[in-house]
Amino acid sequence: MNFSKLDDRISVAGQLEPNDMVHVYSQGFRTIICNRPDNEGPGQPSFAQIKAAASAAGLAAFYIPIVPGQAGQAEVSAFADAIDSQPGPVLAYCRSGARSKAIYDAVRSMA
């Protein structure tokens, strides 16, 4: 699993699996944000499965699904609130990491 560090507080990644959560925690992350809607692709774990594994590993988990090309102010605000209010570092993920980076860029442009 590859992480792309965007700044000292947030990194992005492609699809995570439930069995990745212990590794994510061991890499120092304390919060994950899922930006991928459930049932977007075959074999994709549900957010409920990810959240259960994340909680068991000691990670906070947030679900802010983004349909490609359809992120609005509500999603940008929810993402900003999650990264500002939760312990870091934060790892956001989607299918490839691109949507997570795009919403991070939108948050930064608001600042």
Order of helices and strands: EEHEHEHEH
Number of domains: 1
Residues in helices, as a percent range? 25-40%
Computed Rg: 13 Å
Q: What structural class do you assign from the helix and strand content?
A: alpha/beta
**What is the CATH architecture descriptor?**
Alpha-Beta Complex
Dominant shape:
globular
- What is the highest CATH level, the class? Alpha Beta
Provide mean pLDDT, rounded. 94
The CATH homologous superfamily is termed Protein tyrosine phosphatase superfamily
Spatial ordering of strands, largest sheet = 1-2-5-3-4
Number of strands: 5
Any idea of the CATH topology?
A: Protein-Tyrosine Phosphatase, Chain A
Strand content: 15-25%
Give the termini distance in whole angstroms.
Answer: 30 Å
Oligomer: single chain
Largest sheet: 5 strands, mixed
What are the low-pLDDT stretches, counting only 5+ consecutive residues below 50? none
**Number of helical runs?**
4
Q: Can you give a write-up of this model?
A:
- The chain is α/β, with parallel strands linked by helices and 111 residues long.
- It has one domain: Protein-Tyrosine Phosphatase, Chain A (Alpha-Beta Complex).
- Helix content is 39%, strand content 17%.
- It has four helices and five strands, in the order E-E-H-E-H-E-H-E-H.
- The protein has helices at residues 21-26, 47-57, 73-85, 98-110, and strands at 3-5, 10-13, 31-34, 60-63, 90-93.
- The protein has a five-stranded mixed sheet with strand order 1-2-5-3-4, with helices on both faces.
- A hairpin with a 4-residue loop joins strand 1 (3-5) and strand 2 (10-13).
- Helix 3 (73-85) crosses helix 4 (98-110).
- 33% of the residues are buried.
- The mean pLDDT is 94.
